[in-house]
Amino acid sequence: MTGTQLHELTALEQAAAVRDRTVSPVELVEAALARVEALDAGLGAFVTVTPERALAAAAEAEARVLGGGDLPPLLGVPTAIKDLNNTAGVRTTFGSAVYADFVPGFDDAVVTRLAAAGTVSVGKTNTPEFGFPCYTDNDVAGPARCPWDRTRLAGGSSGGAAVAVAAGMLPFAQGSDGGGSIRIPASVNGLFGIKPTRGRVSNAPLGSDVTGLGTNGPLARTVRDAAAMLDAMAGPVLGDTTWAPPLPPGETFLGCADRPAGRLRIGRALEFPVPGVGLEPEVATALDDAARLLESLGHEVADVPGGLLPPDLLGLFERVWSLSGATLVVPPGRGGELRPLTRELRARGLALSAQAAMEALNALRVFSRRYVRATDAFDVLLAPVTTMTPRPLGWFDADGDGAADFARQVRYAAFPALYNVTGQPAVSVPLHWTGDGLPIGTMLVGRPADEATLIALSAQLEEARPWAHRHPPGWHADA
What we know:
Elements: H1 11-19, H2 25-39, E1 46-49, H3 51-67, E2 78-82, H4 109-116, E3 120-125, H5 159-166, E4 172-177, H6 183-189, E5 192-195, E6 215-220, H7 223-233, H8 253-256, E7 265-268, H9 281-296, E8 300-303, H10 313-326, H11 340-351, H12 354-374, E9 380-384, H13 402-422, E10 426-433, E11 439-446, H14 451-464
Parallel strand pairs: 2-3, 7-8, 7-9
Antiparallel strand pairs: 1-3, 4-6, 5-6, 5-10, 9-11, 10-11
């Protein structure tokens, strides 16, 4: 590895180096931990770092390499788990002071899957309280800051995961997405992120299927790394109520990154979920630029007909989103420790009648069927991730008003949530940087259960306009 710092390697390059014994899992994990120690104080990527556990797991991985035989595909590659996911024996705060000392006794299924693929977690990444906001700040670890401009928020709710990858602490990281929570931080931090189709990645053992909005997925610097991580995550667990059809035998998501995309019909979906909200000029420029790039690659780009979004869509989503607040387990007498936004959403959820909740859920499911059918003439949809450039620290919540905070988030990031409602797979592709050096991602949306086309198309875009060489300030700093 002479002449190459380990953090510059992709996840797949690290895995290959472990297999051919040019680098050891212990060296990879030590390098990742060193960068976390050197960089994280100014970025806020982590809530909890677990060096002893990580080094012990790396030593076990090293023993497997020396023992020979079949090895898991990502053996020894460092990663981290979002602090919304349960990790046995490791503090899991859900971004809330109420759970600051909580240590679960079990792993979520996605944690088990990633470990089985050979990855080594170095800790828990920062997330907002219970994952509600589209930015990352909490009373446990403070804000996650965009490494491209540390006066800006890193997005959320997988903001810590995105910062860790963008700053070169990790080659890839696990996130989750219930309303844009992978795609928004991917856009803000110049990464590639995948929100898989509903049921592609199990939410076992406790993940709620009441709303059907949330799913786990990868954040990475390259399409191939994200695809490899999705391969590791994907698959149902016995008892899941929703699951996606598997890829054909012998196929992988990583393999999809190496196949031709073909000529696709791409629909530009510009109908605003929020009336009266427009795109900032830089975001509009990024979207137009992406459309021209797609056309230059031989794809047909046409506008999706308007009138597909009912006028009450936002209200329906808000009611369903607040249902998650109604199910929060808050110890008696500690509700006042919740942040204003959480208190607001919890109050809204608890105030809903059973009839109102069911009517909202049913209306969204009817809308989803109609929307998917109405856009089925397109292979892929093209849309913005956010309406604005990355927001300054305190932009959403400086006034301490939970309702105003939520209203700002709606204006900023209503587009991604639409595809949590429909359950379609969606990605954020880092194709544009502003004149000030801030990334702006572009969203691509696939047909239900068709991550394969999204990955193939994203790989084509990455080849046409590479982005992995772009790094934020501090990337070349010695750990």
